[in-house]
């Protein structure tokens, strides 16, 4: 969809959530002033007060189900959006969101969800759009590194012990702990060349690590796929292999680094075209204002393009069609017939 240019005065957009969500927030944006307010030790009040003191015009909150309706009413800004980054199953959390979101509630005007809701309870929430957790690609400017042999495995998505043994015979393997900080995770991604990932669920639903790895230029090899509506294609942007074939695939990667060069580049580029945090959240806010009040939002947009003059067609006398002998009937179909010189086909 087309996103209209921003107004001359940039709005202040606040993002609030746990520190783990900071890599998914733009450090800067051309369309707004942005700032992240981390929630530490569950202290939502302090983060919301800081965003209020900053003067946020709009606020996006990660995991809005963690806020009571009273806390949701304290979220600053004229537009307040809750970002649900992982599947939601708790009836209590869904009920809490129903009480703290909607057009007539002093809380979240809209919510986003990572996939098309499967349950009627979720579908009844004020869902604005499907939004997988995006990635701030500005934080990972380096491109794919074909020469790096180091492999990264997450301890919560690790292969069988037999498969790990085969991997260690091929090259160095780093195991990312589930207790790793955001900084430690980013450092591990910057050192690795391949992410090896095992999961019983679709990739990305509960864990943003595969998307972060692709944004950092890593080759992702996994025994599962991404949700279909995300349009991340196996063999085009990552390798879909059962763990029994990982050693053979990695051996090919290390012997011929250019063999999967196109896969790495397409994945790296897909993150920037479809999952970039700045572009995704600009679109979210545009849609939020548009669907809440279409007339007011479109009136507030100012075009930065200079006016374009209407072109004037110049018709030569020889090519001009003859004038009709009688006025054309109102509503009649208008048919333009070629003159004989224009319609003639040379032998």
From TrEMBL:
It comes from the Bacteria. Residues 313-332 are annotated as: Disordered. Residues 313-329 have a biased composition (Low complexity). This is Glycosyltransferase family 1 protein. It comes from Corallococcus carmarthensis.
């Amino acid at each position: 969809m087309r996103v209209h240019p921003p107004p001359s005065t940039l709005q202040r957009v606040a993002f609030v959530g746990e520190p783990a969500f900071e890599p998914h927030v733009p450090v800067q944006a051309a369309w707004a002033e942005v700032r992240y307010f981390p929630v530490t030790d569950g202290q939502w009040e302090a983060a919301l007060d800081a965003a209020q003191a900053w003067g946020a015009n709009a606020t996006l909150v990660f995991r809005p189900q963690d806020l009571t309706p009273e806390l949701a009413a304290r979220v600053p800004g004229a537009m307040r959006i809750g970002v649900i980054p992982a599947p939601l199953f708790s009836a209590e959390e869904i009920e809490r969101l129903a009480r703290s979101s909607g057009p007539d509630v002093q809380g979240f005007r809209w919510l986003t969800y990572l996939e098309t809701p499967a349950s009627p309870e979720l579908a009844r929430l004020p869902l604005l759009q499907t939004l997988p957790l995006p990635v701030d690609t500005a934080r990972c400017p380096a491109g794919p590194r074909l020469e790096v042999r180091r492999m990264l495995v997450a301890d919560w998505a690790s292969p069988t012990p037999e498969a790990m043994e085969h991997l260690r015979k091929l090259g160095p393997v780093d195991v990312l702990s589930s207790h790793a900080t955001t900084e430690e995770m980013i450092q591990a991604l910057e050192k690795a060349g391949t992410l090896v990932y095992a999961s019983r669920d679709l990739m990305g639903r509960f864990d943003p690590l595969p998307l972060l790895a692709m944004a950092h230029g890593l080759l992702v090899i996994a025994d599962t796929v991404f949700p279909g509506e995300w349009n991340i294609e196996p063999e085009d942007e990552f390798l879909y292999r059962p763990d029994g074939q990982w050693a053979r695939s990695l051996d090919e990667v290390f012997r011929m680094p250019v063999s999967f060069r196109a896969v790495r580049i397409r994945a790296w580029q897909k993150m920037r075209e479809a999952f970039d945090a700045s572009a995704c959240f600009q679109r979210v806010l545009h849609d939020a204002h548009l669907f809440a009040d279409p007339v007011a939002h479109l009136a507030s947009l100012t075009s930065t393009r200079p006016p374009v003059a209407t072109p004037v067609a110049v018709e030569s006398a020889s090519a001009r069609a003859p004038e009709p002998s009688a006025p054309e009937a109102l509503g009649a179909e208008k048919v333009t017939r070629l003159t004989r010189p224009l319609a003639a086909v040379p032998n």
